[in-house]
Design goal:
The structure holds two protein chains of two kinds. The longest helix of chain A is centred in the middle third of the chain and has 34 residues. Chain A is built from 16 helices and no strands. Chain A is 71% helix and 0% strand. Among the domains of chain B are: 180 residues, Dimethylsulfoxide Reductase, domain 2 (3-Layer(aba) Sandwich), CATH 3.40.228; 134 residues, Barwin-like endoglucanases, CATH 2.40.40; 280 residues, Alpha-Beta Plaits. In chain B, strand 5, helix 4 and strand 6 form a beta-alpha-beta unit. The chains are: A mainly alpha, B alpha/beta.
C-alpha cells in the first residue's frame, strides 16, 4: 500500500523537486506576513506579561499555596512533548528505514527545535527569581556554590540542553546538501548567505560518504534521546512524593504522550503548509495517514496508561493516590480530566476507520483536538495533584490568571515566529532525500 | 620552553605584564559599588543598651483582669517582640492579646500629636491648656467631671477616683459586669470571682470564652493542666451549655446547645439537682429551690436527662462551673452568673475551684451605671467627660443614646493612642502613652498584682495618662492625692541609681531594665513626704501607691526595683471562700427575647478582635478564625442543616434584620451553632478605627438595642432575627477541608486507656492511636538500617518538638507569635483568597468522626515545618537553597533560593510559604521587625526553622559560658510558638538527649508523626487528643470508593467540596475548597 502511494505521488523529476520546494522561499505572501505579524504580536504580549511578572512577582500568576506549579510547567511539558515527534521521525524512522518519513521529517525536525526552544523559556518563566537563573549551571565560583545533582530539575537542565544541542546539530547536518541546492538556485546576496550555510557542499562522492556517516551517527545519537528526554521530564513528577505524580509509570507514559502530541502537531503544521505551498507531491495523505497511525498507537498506550494509573491507585491501596484519581475524575475540575480523555482517547478513535484517517478535514480537526487534549493532560497532572495533596486543610483550587494565559499565548507566538521564519528561509522538505525516490535524470540532462 | 626564542619570550612577557597591569587597574575601579554607611558608635553608651543585643523588660500588657505579664524584648531603642515572663506565678505564656498589643503599639494609625475636634494637630502645651480649661469650666459650673474607660485598678483607679470625684466608670462592653453584680447579690460583695480549673475534673461553661482570654489567660493554662493525662491520671471533661460553640466551646467534650436566653434556667435547675445529690443544706438552699429541671428542659430544648447528667457529673467529682460571659448575657445575664455561682457553692467547690478574693472590689461598672451617666449627660449635669481607651460609640447600640448625650457635654476629652468612633466625637484627643510606654499596675481575678514599666520611650509625642491627669488636675485646682507618704522631690536625687533616665518633655522616663535590680537603691533611703502630697509624675504616683501598700520603709526602692524586674507583686492569690449572703434574692432565670420568627441572633466575642479593640491590628484580621478560617470579614455562622433547609449556600450574602436595624453579612456553615440560631462575632464593621478595620465586615451591635437585665447588666442575647438573601458575599476562608479525610492527621485516643498510662514512655509509640510507622523491610532491618538511605548524622542536637493536640485549644497564639518573631508579612484579604498568606504555622481544624452517639469533636493541629530527617524538600532543590543542618533542621538559605517552588510541591505537610510579592511594612510597623531575622523578598521560599535565630543565640550564650551542650531547661520554650502557647501544648528540645522532655514525649503511647508512612522521619511528634466518645468504626484513610461518614462535620465540610454533594459546588466552586 505504501508503495502504491509512493508511486502515485512521486514527483516527476529532480527539477520539479527543486522548483517546488525552493519556490516558497524568500517570497513572503500576504497571508504569511499577516501570520508573522500575529505571531510577533503574541510573542510581544507574552513578553509584556513576563515583564509584569518580573516586576510584581509570581503573585500575578494563579499559582498559590498549595499548587505551586501551574501553567508554566504544564506548557513546558507540552512543548517538550511536541519536540519529540521531530527527532522520532528524523532519527528513529531513518534508522528503521521507514520511507514515509522523507516528506515530513525536515519540517518536523524544525518543529522539534522550535518547540524545545519554546520549552526552554519556561524554566526561566516560572522562576521566582529569574535573574539568578545562572545558578542552575555548574560554573566555577569563589563562593564554592554548586548545584544539587539529586534534583530532577537539574537533570532537566542537562537533558533538555543536550536534546536541544543534538537535535540542532542533526537538523543542520541534514540541511547541508539542501543549502547547496538553494545556493545553486539563487543569486546575489542570498546566494552568498546560502553559500556560507552550505559549508562548501559540492556533492562529491567523498562528501556524500562523510555526510551519510555523520547523518547516521547523529541519527543514532539522537534516537535514544527521544526516549530519555521526556523520561527525565517525567521524573520532575515521578521523583517527587506527591500523590498522583509518584509513579514508575510516568516515563513510558510521558514518552508515549510526547510522541502522540508531536505527531499530531506535525499534522497540524504540515497540512496547511502542504496546501499553501502546493506540496501535494511530497506531503500528502500517505504521510498524514502514517502520522495518524503513530498517533493511534500512542493514543492506545496513553489510554492504557490512564487506565493503569487508576488500577495502580486501587491496587496500591494508597489512600492519597486513590483520592487524587477519584478527585480528578469527579472533583470540581472534572472537566479537565474529561477533556483529556475525550481528546486523547476517544476522538482519535475515528482514525481507525481508514476513510476517515485519509480525510484531510478529519485529520486536521482531530490533530487539533489531540493538541488541546495533551495540554489538558498536563494540566490534569500538574494542578490536580497539588490541589488535593496530603493535608486536606490546605486544599485549594488552581486556575490560571490573565498573565499566565498571556505567557501561554506568547509561547505559541514565539514558536510560530520561528516556524514561519523557517518556512520562508529553509527548504521545508528534504530535497535531496526526495530525489532518492525519483528516477535519476539521464546523464546530460539540462536539469539536475 | 623549547622553541621559544628570545623575541617571542619578550613579546609574551610584554603582553603578559601589560595585561596584568591593565586588569589590575580595572580591579581598582570600584565596579561593585558599596554604599558608604556611617555607623557611629555611641559617645556615651546608655547603660543597658548594647547594640545588637536585646534587653528585656518585665511589663504588663492589656488592662483590667485580662492583663498579662510579659517580657518586652527591647532592641536598639524599640520593642521588637514580647516573650513569656518566666518569673511570674502566672503561666509563662504570650497570649494573642499581648501580641496584638504589640502590633497596636506600632500601628500606623496612632495619633502622633494631640488633635482637636476639627482634626488640627496641637502641641501638648496647647492641648493641656484646653484640657485644663475644660475641667475648670466644668468645676466652675458646678458640674460633674466623669471618666469612662476600661477596667482599671490600683494606682490608675485611685487617681481617676480623685480626679473625677468618684465619677469614674470602669466599664467594658463585653466585660464582667454580670459576674460582679451577681457576686454582689449572692455574696454581698461586688468583686470578681476567681476560678481554678487545674483542680477540676469536670468543667462546665455556660458560654464564657475562657480559652481566649475571658477570666484571664491563666484559665487556658489551667484548662490544659486539667486535661493533662499525667495530672492525676484523669483527663478532665469539659461541657458547654450554650447555643453556640465559640473558640472555647468548640473544645468541649460535650455540648448542650440550649436555646438562647435559657441558660440561667438550666443553671438553676442544675444547681437544684446538684444540691439534692450532694445533700446540700446550707444558706443557698432557699435560692436553688427555685430551680425547675422540667421547665428548664422544656424552655431550653435540652433533654431532661442531659440536665440531670450534668448535675450528676458535677456532684460526682471536683468540678468548676463558669458563667456565661458575653455569650450568656441575655436579659437574665446576672441571674445566669448567680446560678453558676450557686452551683459552685452547692457542689462544695467554693474555696477550691471557685472563690472570691477582693479583686476589683466596686470597680466594675455595669451598663446600668453607664446609662445613669448618659442620663446625667442628657440632663446637663456633666461638665466634662474624660474617655479612656474605650469605644462606647462603636460598642453600644444606637438607642443607648450615648453619642447624642456626649454631644451635649461641653467638653469631651479622649485619652487614647488610637483613633476610633469615640475619639471622633471628642473635643480633644490626647494621645497617651500605651502599655509599652507607661507606668502602671493591674490586678487580676486571682488578686495577683502586675506592674507595668515603660519598655521603650514613646514612639510619638505621647505622654503618660497619669502625668497628663496629674498636671491637668493640679492646674485645674483638683488635688489628687497619693495614698500616703510619697517619695518627695528628693526622688530626683535617686534618679541616677534608677538607671539611665531620659528626659522627655520634662518628664522622667525610666528605662530601667529587668536586670537592673543590682542597683544601689538600698543606700538611698527615700524621703517620706507629708500626707496628701501629690507626686509630680505618674511614675512617682505609682511608686507612692506601692510604698503605701507594700508597707516597706527605707528598703522600698530596692524592693520596688526587684518587683519591677519581676513584673508582678506576689500577693495572697489563693481563692477565698464564698459565703452566700442571707439577703440574696431568689431568681427565676427566664430571659426575654424580642422579635418574632424562628431564628435567634447570637452575638459572641471574637477570639482575636474581642469587642473590636484589636480590629485595626492586621494580625488579628489575618490570623484565620479558629473555627471557620475566615479572615478580614464578618460572617454569620449557620448550622449546615439549617442552611440546607433554608436553601442558603456558603458565601451567600444575607441581610439580617431585627427591630433595631439590619446588616449584611456572608454565610459560613458552622455545626457548632444551634439549628435555630444565627451567630455573629462582635468586633467588626468599624467606620473610624483605622485603615485595617474600617469597613471590614459588619457590626452586629447594629442589630441590637440597649437592654439591661433586672440587675443592671447589659443584655446582648436579646433578639430574634429575620433574614433575606441579597446576593453573594466576599468571604475568604483558609480552611481547605473540614475533615482530615481519615488521613489520621489528628487521631484520637480513648480517654480511659490514656488515663491508665498518661504520657509515660511506651514500647510502641502510637499504641494509643493505632498509628505506627510502616514496618521495615526485613532486609533493611537485617542491616540495621531504618531506611534505604541513612538518617543524617546529628552528633549533638536533633532539634525536635512535640505538640500535644489534647492541650491545643486552637487559640492561634503560636501562629501570631510566629508572625511577630519571624517578620512574616500580612498580605490582606485579596491575597489570602489567592492563597498567598504567609503564616509559617497554620492551625488546622478538623471535625472529628464519631459513630453518631457523641458530638462531632474538634481537633486542632498546629502544623509547622516538621524538620524531616529525610526531607522531601531538600533533595529536589536544584541550587541547594534548602539543606539539612547538623542539628537536624531543614535550613533555608533565603538568598540562595531561585524560586522553583519544587520544595513546596514536594512537602507533604505543605508548610512552605512562597513570597509571591515583595511586601512592605508601613511605617512604623517596620520598627517591629526582628533584626535577627532576614526579611525575604519576592521570589523566595520561606518556612519555619524552629526560630533558628533563637537557637543560635541560646547556643552561643552557653558556649560563651563554656557549656558545650545547652541544658534541657533552656530549650523547652525557646521557639516563639512554644513560648507563646497558653496551654503549653508545644514542647521543644533535643531528641538526641534521651532524658529531654521532647524525647520522652516522642515515646509516649499517644505520640505519632503525621504522614509517618512517607518515611520523612520528622522531628515533630504530635500527641493524640483524648476523647470521651466512641469513634466512627471507619478506619483507614478515605478514597473515592469510601463513603464519607455521616457526622455533622462532614455535612459541613464536604458539602461544598465533595463533588457528589448536591448543589453546593456548582454555585460556588471556589469558595471553601479555594481560599
Amino acid at each position: 500500500m505504501d508503495d502504491k502511494y509512493r508511486e502515485a505521488n512521486r514527483p516527476a523529476t529532480y527539477a520539479a523537486a527543486n522548483r517546488d520546494i525552493i519556490r516558497p522561499l524568500l517570497t513572503p505572501t500576504v497571508m504569511w506576513v499577516a501570520a508573522f505579524v500575529l505571531a510577533t504580536a503574541a510573542m510581544v504580549y507574552g513578553g509584556y506579561c513576563w515583564y509584569l511578572q518580573i516586576t510584581w512577582g509570581m503573585g500575578v500568576a494563579g499559582i498559590k499555596h498549595p499548587t505551586f506549579w501551574g501553567v508554566y510547567i504544564v506548557t513546558f511539558v507540552f512543548w517538550v512533548g511536541i519536540g519529540h515527534a521531530g527527532t522520532l521521525i528524523s532519527a528513529i524512522l531513518y534508522l528503521v528505514r521507514s520511507r514515509w518519513r522523507t516528506g515530513v521529517y525536515r519540517a518536523s525536525e524544525a518543529m522539534t527545535i522550535f518547540a524545545v526552544m519554546t520549552a526552554l523559556l519556561f524554566p526561566a518563566l516560572h522562576l521566582g527569581r529569574v535573574w539568578q537563573m545562572y545558578w542552575f549551571f555548574p560554573y566555577p565560583n569563589q563562593r564554592e556554590l554548586w548545584m544539587n545533582f539529586k534534583s530532577p530539575l537539574m537533570w532537566d537542565v542537562f537533558a533538555i540542553s543536550t536534546y536541544f544541542t543534538i537535535s540542532s546539530v542533526f537538523f543542520y547536518v541534514g540541511l547541508v546538501p539542501d543549502m547547496a541546492i538553494v545556493r545553486d538556485h539563487s543569486t546575489g546576496l542570498v546566494k552568498r548567505i546560502y553559500n556560507i550555510l552550505a559549508l562548501g557542499w559540492r556533492g562529491t562522492n567523498k562528501q556524500w560518504h562523510s555526510y551519510m556517516a555523520a547523518y547516521g551517527f547523529f541519527a543514532a545519537f539522537a534516537a535514544p534521546l527521544v526516549l530519555s528526554v521526556h523520561s527525565v521530564v517525567s521524573w520532575d513528577f515521578a521523583m517527587s512524593n506527591t500523590a498522583g505524580w509518584h509513579s514508575t509509570l510516568f516515563p513510558p507514559y510521558f514518552v508515549a504522550g510526547a510522541i502522540f502530541s508531536g505527531c499530531a502537531m506535525v499534522i497540524t503544521l504540515l497540512m496547511p503548509m502542504s496546501y499553501l505551498f502546493k506540496w501535494h507531491d511530497y506531503v500528502n495523505t500517505w504521510h498524514y495517514e502514517s502520522l495518524a497511525k503513530m498517533c493511534l498507537l500512542t493514543s492506545g498506550i496513553l489510554t492504557y496508561s490512564y487506565f493503569m494509573e487508576y488500577f495502580i491507585a486501587w491496587y496500591s491501596q494508597n489512600p492519597y493516590e486513590q483520592y487524587i484519581f477519584y478527585w480528578r475524575t469527579v472533583g470540581e475540575q472534572w472537566w479537565i480530566f474529561a477533556t483529556m480523555v475525550v481528546c486523547n482517547c476517544i476522538i482519535p478513535l475515528v482514525w481507525y476507520k481508514k476513510a476517515w484517517r485519509q480525510n484531510h478535514v478529519i485529520l486536521f480537526v482531530v490533530s487539533i483536538f489531540v493538541n488541546i487534549g495533551m495540554w489538558f493532560e498536563r494540566l490534569n497532572i500538574v494542578a490536580s495533584s497539588t490541589s488535593r495533596s496530603f493535608d486536606p486543610s490546605t486544599w485549594d483550587l488552581y486556575w490560571p490568571t490573565v498573565v499566565e494565559w498571556g505567557i501561554l499565548l506568547g509561547s505559541a507566538g514565539w514558536f510560530s515566529f520561528w516556524f514561519l521564519l523557517f518556512a520562508k528561509t529553509l527548504p521545508g522538505v528534504a530535497i535531496t532525500e526526495i530525489k532518492e525516490m525519483v528516477e535519476p535524470p539521464v546523464k546530460g540532462s539540462l536539469e539536475g | 620552553m623549547a622553541g621559544l626564542n628570545r623575541r617571542d619570550f619578550l613579546k609574551a612577557l610584554g603582553i603578559g605584564s601589560g595585561a596584568s597591569v591593565m586588569s589590575a587597574c580595572r580591579m581598582d575601579d570600584n565596579r561593585y559599588y558599596t554604599p558608604i554607611e556611617q555607623v557611629l558608635p555611641y559617645v556615651v553608651k546608655p547603660e543597658q543598651v548594647t547594640p545588637g543585643t536585646p534587653t528585656f523588660f518585665a511589663t504588663t500588657l492589656g488592662t483590667g483582669p485580662n492583663a498579662h505579664t510579659v517580657l518586652a524584648r527591647h532592641r536598639d531603642g524599640r520593642v521588637v517582640n514580647v516573650g513569656a515572663n518566666t518569673r511570674s506565678p502566672m503561666a509563662s505564656i504570650v497570649p494573642t492579646d499581648a501580641l496584638f498589643e504589640l502590633q497596636r503599639h506600632f500601628s500606623p494609625d496612632r495619633y502622633a500629636k494631640p488633635v482637636s475636634k476639627d482634626g488640627a494637630e496641637l502641641e501638648w502645651d496647647a492641648a493641656r491648656g484646653q484640657l485644663v480649661e475644660g475641667l475648670k469650666a466644668a468645676r466652675a459650673g458646678g458640674k460633674k467631671i466623669a471618666w469612662l474607660g476600661p477596667y482599671a485598678s490600683g494606682s490608675l483607679a485611685n487617681l481617676l477616683k480623685d480626679v473625677t470625684a468618684d465619677n469614674a466608670l470602669h466599664w467594658e462592653p463585653l466585660g464582667y459586669e454580670a459576674d460582679a453584680l451577681a457576686a454582689e447579690k449572692v455574696f454581698g460583695r461586688r468583686v470578681l470571682p476567681a476560678y481554678d480549673l487545674s483542680k477540676a475534673k469536670y468543667i462546665v461553661s455556660f458560654g464564657a470564652d475562657f480559652l481566649s482570654g475571658w477570666g484571664g489567660w491563666e484559665l487556658s493554662n489551667q484548662y490544659a493542666s486539667a486535661k493533662n493525662p499525667n495530672d492525676g491520671g484523669f483527663v478532665a471533661r469539659f461541657a458547654l451549655v450554650s447555643p453556640y460553640q465559640d473558640q472555647s466551646g468548640v473544645n468541649a467534650d460535650d455540648w448542650y446547645g440550649c436555646k438562647p436566653g435559657t441558660a440561667a434556667q438550666v443553671a438553676l435547675a442544675i444547681a437544684k439537682l446538684v444540691a439534692a445529690k450532694k445533700g446540700y443544706t446550707g444558706p443557698a438552699t432557699r435560692l436553688v429551690a427555685a430551680g425547675d429541671p422540667a421547665s428548664a428542659a422544656a424552655a431550653s430544648g435540652l433533654d431532661a436527662g442531659d440536665i440531670d447528667a450534668i448535675a450528676a457529673q458535677i456532684a460526682a467529682r471536683d468540678s468548676v462551673v463558669l458563667p456565661g460571659g458575653a455569650a450568656g448575657a441575655s436579659t437574665a445575664a446576672t441571674e445566669l452568673a448567680m446560678a453558676t455561682f450557686l452551683i459552685n457553692v452547692v457542689s462544695g467547690m467554693a474555696g477550691k475551684t471557685f472563690g472570691l478574693g477582693r479583686a476589683y472590689e466596686g470597680a466594675i461598672a455595669s451598663y446600668g451605671d453607664v446609662k445613669s451617666l448618659v442620663d446625667a449627660m442628657n440632663n446637663g449635669e456633666v461638665g466634662a467627660v474624660l474617655l479612656g481607651d474605650t469605644n462606647p460609640a462603636y460598642a453600644l447600640p444606637a438607642d443607648s443614646g450615648f453619642a447624642e448625650a456626649l454631644g451635649k457635654v461641653p467638653f469631651v476629652a479622649s485619652f487614647n493612642s488610637q483613633p476610633d468612633e469615640t475619639t471622633a466625637l471628642a473635643n480633644l484627643v490626647l494621645p497617651v502613652a500605651d502599655v509599652f510606654e507607661d507606668w502602671g499596675d493591674e490586678e487580676l481575678h486571682s488578686g495577683l498584682r502586675l506592674l507595668r514599666q515603660p519598655a521603650q520611650s514613646p514612639l510619638y509625642d505621647a505622654l503618660s495618662l497619669g502625668d497628663v491627669l496629674l498636671a491637668a488636675a493640679r492646674d485645674a485646682g483638683l488635688q489628687p492625692v497619693a495614698p500616703v507618704a510619697a517619695a518627695t522631690a528628693g526622688t530626683e536625687g535617686t534618679e541616677g541609681s534608677d538607671g539611665a533616665a531620659i528626659q522627655v518633655d520634662g518628664l522622667a522616663w525610666n528605662v530601667e531594665g529587668a536586670e537592673g535590680t543590682e542597683g544601689t537603691e538600698g543606700d538611698a533611703p527615700a524621703a517620706l513626704g507629708p500626707v496628701g502630697f501629690t507626686p509630680a509624675t505618674y511614675r512617682d504616683y505609682v511608686k507612692a501607691t506601692w510604698q503605701h501598700s507594700s508597707g516597706k520603709g527605707a528598703s522600698f526602692d530596692l524592693w520596688f526595683q526587684e518587683r519591677l524586674a519581676d513584673g508582678f507583686v506576689a500577693t495572697e492569690t489563693s481563692i477565698g471562700g464564698a459565703q452566700v449572703s442571707p439577703g440574696a434574692p431568689v431568681i427565676a432565670g427566664a430571659a426575654a427575647i424580642e422579635g418574632a420568627g424562628e431564628y435567634f441572633l447570637h452575638a459572641y466575642p471574637h477570639p482575636f478582635r474581642k469587642d473590636g479593640r484589636f480590629a485595626n491590628q492586621p494580625w488579628a484580621q489575618e490570623t484565620p478564625d479558629p473555627m471557620t478560617g475566615q479572615v478580614w470579614d464578618s460572617w454569620v455562622c449557620v448550622h449546615p442543616d439549617t442552611a440546607k433547609r433554608l436553601g442558603i449556600a456558603r458565601n451567600d450574602l444575607l441581610e439580617l434584620t431585627t427591630a433595631a436595624g439590619s446588616i449584611k453579612v456572608g454565610v459560613d456553615f458552622y455545626q457548632g451553632t444551634r439549628k435555630d440560631t444565627f451567630a455573629i462575632a462582635f468586633g467588626q464593621g468599624h467606620i473610624a478605627n483605622g485603615r485595617y478595620a474600617n469597613n471590614v465586615g459588619a457590626n452586629v451591635v447594629s442589630l441590637l438595642s440597649a437592654k439591661v437585665d433586672g440587675f443592671g447588666a447589659i443584655a446582648w442575647q436579646q433578639a430574634k432575627v429575620a433574614f433575606k438573601k441579597v446576593g453573594t458575599a466576599d468571604l475568604v476562608t483558609t480552611v481547605g477541608s473540614d475533615t482530615d479525610h481519615h488521613r489520621q492527621m489528628a487521631p484520637v485516643t480513648d480517654h480511659e486507656a490514656l488515663a491508665k498510662v498518661g504520657d509515660s514512655e511506651s514500647h510502641h509509640p502510637g499504641e494509643l492511636t493505632g498509628i505506627h510507622h510502616l514496618g521495615l523491610d526485613p532486609r533493611l532491618a537485617e542491616r540495621g538500617a531504618v531506611d534505604f538511605y541513612d538518617i543524617p548524622d546529628h552528633p549533638t542536637y536533633r532539634w525536635g518538638m512535640s505538640v500535644d493536640i489534647n492541650a491545643c485549644t486552637g487559640c492561634g497564639a503560636c501562629a501570631v507569635a510566629c508572625y511577630a518573631e519571624n517578620n512574616l508579612p500580612v498580605v490582606g484579604k485579596a491575597k489570602v483568597r489567592d492563597g498567598r498568606e504567609m503564616g509559617w504555622i497554620r492551625v488546622n481544624r478538623y471535625w472529628g468522626y464519631t459513630d453518631g452517639s457523641g458530638p462531632v469533636e474538634t481537633r486542632f493541629l498546629p502544623m509547622m515545618c516538621q524538620q524531616c530527617a529525610h526531607a522531601p524538600c531538600e533533595s529536589v532543590c536544584p541550587v541547594l537553597a534548602t539543606y539539612h543542618t547538623i542539628d537536624g533542621l531543614n535550613a533555608m538559605i533565603y538568598n540562595r533560593c531561585v524560586g522553583t517552588r519544587y520544595c513546596a510541591n514536594n512537602c507533604p505537610y505543605i508548610v512552605r510559604r512562597f513570597n509571591y510579592h515583595s511586601y512592605v511594612w508601613p511605617e512604623p510597623f517596620n520598627l517591629q521587625l526582628n533584626p535577627d531575622v532576614m526579611a525575604r523578598t519576592m521570589g523566595v521560599m520561606e518556612k519555619c526553622t524552629f526560630c533558628v535565630q533563637r537557637l543560635r543565640n541560646t547556643k552561643s550564650a552557653y558556649r560563651d559560658q563554656g557549656v558545650e551542650v545547652v541544658p534541657e531547661e533552656a530549650l523547652t520554650h525557646v521557639t516563639a510558638c512554644a513560648e507563646a502557647c497558653p496551654t503549653d501544648a508545644i514542647t521543644f528540645g533535643n531528641l538526641i538527649d534521651a532524658e529531654s522532655g521532647v524525647t520522652k514525649l516522642a515515646k509516649s503511647g499517644r505520640a505519632y508523626q503525621v504522614f509517618a508512612e512517607l518515611n520523612t522521619f520528622s522531628a515533630v511528634h504530635y500527641l493524640a487528643k483524648a476523647t470521651f466518645h466512641p469513634q466512627d468504626s471507619h478506619h483507614g484513610a478515605d478514597s473515592g470508593e469510601h463513603h464519607e461518614p455521616e457526622a455533622h462535620g462532614d455535612e459541613h465540610g464536604d458539602a461544598a467540596h465533595a463533588p457528589e454533594a448536591e448543589g453546593a459546588h456548582h454555585e460556588e466552586p471556589a469558595h471553601d475548597a479555594a481560599h
